[in-house]
Specification:
five-stranded parallel β-sheet; Rossmann fold; 19 helices; alpha/beta; 3 domains; disordered C terminus; four-stranded mixed β-sheet; Helicase, Ruva Protein, domain 3; 15 strands
Length: about 500
């Protein structure tokens, strides 16, 4: 009779568990509880950081890392020694007096993790796929968008627009009449501060695709101290929130690519030069790469994800110092003797000598032919002139001056710059010879006193930056709020200038 009772109890327990499992499956299908990511019960990392989870009863989730550590600990446990111990109560009682096991039934409330500690998932928009051939912007539209943010560099913007358009048409269609379209990887060459990184950032934002920016200076051959070559793909996977499909349609920008050129006149092993170029060949061409999820290096405790780089657009950029001398040497071979001969110093004063670059010049610089061959689109960017500097200050949507005007507008103060002040800032930036980066540093220096003093006085209504203030011979003009409309000629100055 007792056996029947126990049998009925077991059946009832099994039916209850089956019903709970069915309810959990229905909840999962209906999407209830899917607003939050699963969080590891041990290390508290979310699914986007830790990777796929092991799901245990009572909605407990354990990440792959913690599960491996637990299994390693359990495998080193001495069960046989415990089983050989006599019972502590002299009978068939407890053999393990100091060991208490966790009762999973006690862990209630969605695995003991309250909702406020869980990370909310980002909602994915349903409908059209991310990349649809009918919705890809044509090249002239892409260039128009770039024109709103980037001043000058017309040739570079045109080349990038066409290359990106062709690449994402290739991704959307795959093949056309069994003709496989090759990738349009790009190599951009230009002096420092001319807008290489800014162009790529703007392009990725306009296309709404994940972007990873890596620095080639930290890359080394596998097995040496530094970042492995696959780490650039790992950064893209992190930018895509560990979504492999989205990462496989992203953009990887490798800056300072000229730093991995072959080292000349050295007998030491070149672990950060030619060997890195050779290791990057498979990435540029397209290969399946295993990269760690949520970590920079591979080890036994980190889960791996397989990413196919076939549809990832690679853009490499570098300043290539001394490349101008290589170009001049090639061009000066044409010089000869006579009245109509070209002079050797003919190209010394040419500003955009980089625009005459050829593949042969890049190879002489130290890039191997196989690497150059996988970057079919090669173009150069111009150095910035004084007029371009002035336009960079005021024309783009997020221009530096507009940022400061917005900051002072929050204090109900109007900020204005005289034309002479903009020209003086551009002249100082040209002297530093660091491109557009110098503009921000110069403005930060001159705006320091203004940003410090203006919030002190609520009567200030307008600040005008003059050329004299930039050159150090005068000061900015301060317009009192009450007089800004009635008496525009009654102005004061913060420091270094007389009142008007």
């Amino acid at each position: 009779m007792s056996d029947d009772r126990y049998h009925d109890a077991d059946e009832e327990i099994r039916d209850t568990k089956d019903e709970k499992n069915r309810e959990a499956d229905r909840d999962e299908k209906n999407g209830s509880g899917s607003d939050y990511e699963d969080v590891c019960f041990i290390c508290r990392r979310p699914e986007s950081k830790a990777g796929k989870m092991f799901r245990l009863p009572n909605h407990i989730c354990v990440c792959d890392d913690c599960m491996h550590k637990t299994m390693d600990t359990v495998s080193q446990f001495d069960y046989q020694g415990l089983l050989n111990q006599p019972p502590t109560d002299g009978g068939d009682g407890n053999r393990f007096p100091n060991i208490s096991f966790v009762n999973l039934a006690d862990l209630q409330g969605d695995g003991g993790i309250p909702n406020k500690q869980k990370i909310r998932k980002k909602k994915k928009e349903s409908g059209q796929p991310e990349i649809d051939i009918r919705n890809i912007l044509p090249p002239h539209k892409i260039k128009e968008k770039l024109d709103e943010y980037v001043v000058g560099q017309e040739h570079a913007k045109k080349v990038m627009s066409v290359a990106v358009y062709n690449h994402y048409k290739r991704v959307a269609t795959g093949t056309m009449d069994e003709i496989e379209i090759e990738k349009s990887n790009m190599l951009m060459i230009g002096p420092t501060g001319c807008g290489k990184t800014y162009l790529v950032k703007t392009l990725a934002r306009l296309l709404d695709v994940p972007l990873a920016i890596a620095d080639a200076t930290s890359l080394t051959e596998a097995g040496y101290i530094g970042d492995d070559i696959e780490s650039v793909v790992s950064k893209l996977l992190a930018a895509a929130e560990n979504d492999v499909e989205r990462a496989e349609r992203g953009i990887i920008f490798i800056d300072e690519i000229d730093k991995i050129a072959k080292k000349k006149n050295t007998n030491a092993r070149d672990v950060s030069g030619e060997s890195v170029q050779q290791g990057m060949l498979k990435l540029l061409e397209g290969a399946e790469v295993e990269v760690p999820v949520g970590a920079n290096s591979k080890n036994a405790m980190v889960p791996l994800a397989t990413v196919n780089t076939k549809n990832i657009l690679f853009i490499c950029g570098g300043a290539f110092p001394d490349l101008e001398e290589i170009i001049k040497q090639r061009l000066n071979k044409r010089t000869s003797i006579g009245y109509t001969a070209e002079l050797k110093d003919r190209y010394d004063k040419e500003k955009n000598i980089l625009s005459r670059v050829t593949v042969e010049d890049i190879r002489k610089f130290g890039m191997i032919p196989e690497f150059i061959g996988r970057l079919p689109v090669i173009f150069t960017l111009e150095g910035l002139s004084r007029e371009m500097m002035v336009k960079i200050l005021e024309e783009p949507k997020n221009a530096i001056l507009k940022q400061y005007q917005k900051l002072l507008e929050l204090d109900e103060v109007k900020l204005e710059f005289e034309r002479g002040a903009l020209e003086a800032i551009a002249e100082k930036a040209m002297e530093k010879d660091t491109g557009a980066r110098a503009l921000r540093a110069i403005i930060e220096e001159f705006m320091l006193d203004i940003m410090y003093e203006v919030p002190k006085d609520e009567n200030i209504g307008r600040v005008t930056i003059t050329r004299e203030y930039i050159e150090g011979t005068g000061g900015p003009i301060i317009d009192i709020r009450s007089n800004s409309l009635e008496h525009p000629d009654r102005l004061n100055v913060i420091e270094g200038g007389a009142a008007r």
